[in-house]
Design brief:
The protein is mostly helical. It is built from 19 helices and no strands. The chain folds into two domains: 179 residues, Up-down Bundle (Growth Hormone, Chain: A), CATH 1.20.1250; 184 residues, Growth Hormone, Chain: A, CATH 1.20.1250.20.
């Protein structure tokens, strides 16, 4: 199947709005990796261990994960535009507090604040794209959105690390915080107020073209208060309606399936991102600079995949794209154990791994978008992102333990097992 004109990769229904949300995604991901480039400086300045310095990131992501679910409910109540801008200001404030920190405890407080602010982005930003794009363009829109996140992740080490090396890490964080506040204001002023307008989608439910084999879901997902099948006055029905009102998402089978699928996707990617540099360092016997350069190439592949797979997600069966990407990633991870320790060869191999590992996200997000409706889209994405956060947190810990016992060169290819499980989950999604 021809991919068509390259411009078609970016041909979305609302390019200005998608562009604004995409840049916001880049800013959010930039802040999420603001501290790693300066951890050695923090260790020296505050006389702390690397374990204590690493705990700052744990604090950030714990707060980020815990507050995503309530952020989704708030997005559906007060509006995604306001929440996204406000959250970016709070996130920037946390980075600014960190830049002024006189001691380690203040650094922790700054990361708590930053994590709470950052938690608002994905439920608000991704549900905005879901609400304003049509079923024919939401895959591309999610791919463009993903490209913004990859770009922000790649820029943080260069910009924050570069400023810190040239001047001072406090100045680097201060400048970064100022940029975040400025963009929050710009976003709020330029993004149109779409709250309360009719969705720009071609039907809020799900059909076979939208989700790729999920034709049964539209009736089940019609609202959080959808029929449960329980007796009207039963305790189970009452409890279920209460929980649905609390989380603002239908307690339906498709929600659980999508939750588990997101969990395993993020488990695989979390492990890959965490240990790719360590694996390459041990495998090649080279320098960390060389290993990080190969990792950067993997992120380049991720960015290309986000756009390309998003385009395909609007033209093909999304469940098959997800299955194919994860199955191929499992194969590539397995064969990684046998690839010669040749740097040029590893550059190409990890580029391919980046393409396959990230190609799944536009398809998965478009499937979620197809299930969402205006009155609970923020909450639905929050639930799925919570699954992703859990997977991203479990992956590094689980495979870190495995690496300690069997060695990094065995543990890293072993991530293929998780990729294979994620691929199998897409076959379950297809049967919904």
């Amino acid at each position: 199947m021809s991919l068509g004109n390259p411009r078609e990769f970016f041909a979305v229904a609302n390019p200005r709005e998608v562009g604004l949300v995409t840049v916001a995604h880049g800013v959010n991901e930039f802040y999420s990796v603001a501290l790693p480039p300066i951890l050695p400086l923090l260790v020296a300045d505050f006389d702390v261990t690397y374990g204590e310095a690493g705990a700052l990131l744990t604090v950030f992501f714990v707060m980020y994960s815990v507050f995503q679910l309530p952020a989704g409910v708030v997005a559906d109540r007060v509006g995604q535009r306001l929440l996204l801008a406000a959250g970016m200001v709070v996130l920037s404030a946390g980075i600014f507090v960190s830049s002024l920190a006189p001691n380690y405890e203040t650094l922790v407080a700054g990361q708590v604040l930053a994590g709470v602010g950052g938690s608002t982005y994905h439920p608000a930003g991704m549900s905005l794209i879901s609400d304003i794009e049509t079923g024919d363009t939401e895959g591309k829109a999610m791919g463009i959105h993903g490209l913004g996140g990859v770009t922000g992740t790649a820029l943080a080490p260069a910009l924050i690390g570069g400023l810190a090396a040239l001047y001072d890490w406090r100045l680097a964080l201060t400048v970064a915080a100022g940029v975040g506040v400025a963009y929050a204001v710009l976003f709020y002023l330029l993004f149109p107020d779409v709250e309360g307008e009719a969705p720009a989608t071609d039907g809020a439910g799900v059909d076979a073209d939208d989700a790729g084999g999920t034709a049964e879901a539209s009736g089940e997902a019609s609202s959080p208060a959808a029929s449960t099948g329980d007796a009207p006055d039963s305790f189970g029905a009452t409890l279920r309606r209460g929980v649905e009102r609390l989380v603002n998402v239908p307690l339906a089978g498709w929600v659980l399936v999508l939750f588990v699928t997101n969990f395993f996707i993020s488990l695989e990617l979390g492990a890959v991102r965490t240990f790719a540099t360590s694996y390459l360092f041990e495998r090649t016997g080279g320098s960390t600079t060389e290993a990080n350069a190969i990792f950067f190439v993997m992120l380049v592949g991720a960015g290309i995949a986000s756009v390309g797979a998003g385009h395909l997600a609007d033209r093909s069966d999304r469940t098959l794209i997800g299955f194919g990407a994860m199955a191929a990633a499992a194969l590539v991870l397995t064969v990684t154990a046998f690839v010669p320790a040749n740097v040029p060869l590893l550059v190409g191999w990890f580029f391919l791994l980046g393409v396959l590992s990230y190609a799944v996200y536009p398809a998965m997000n478009a499937i979620t978008s197809a299930y969402s409706e205006r009155d609970f889209s923020g909450s639905l994405f929050a639930v799925m992102l919570t699954a992703g956060s859990l997977g991203g947190a479990v992956g590094p810990v689980a495979f870190g333990v495995v690496a300690e016992r069997v060695g990094m060169t065995v543990a890293f290819p072993g991530i293929a097992v998780v990729a294979a499980v994620a691929a199998a989950m897409f076959l379950v999604v297809r049967r919904l």
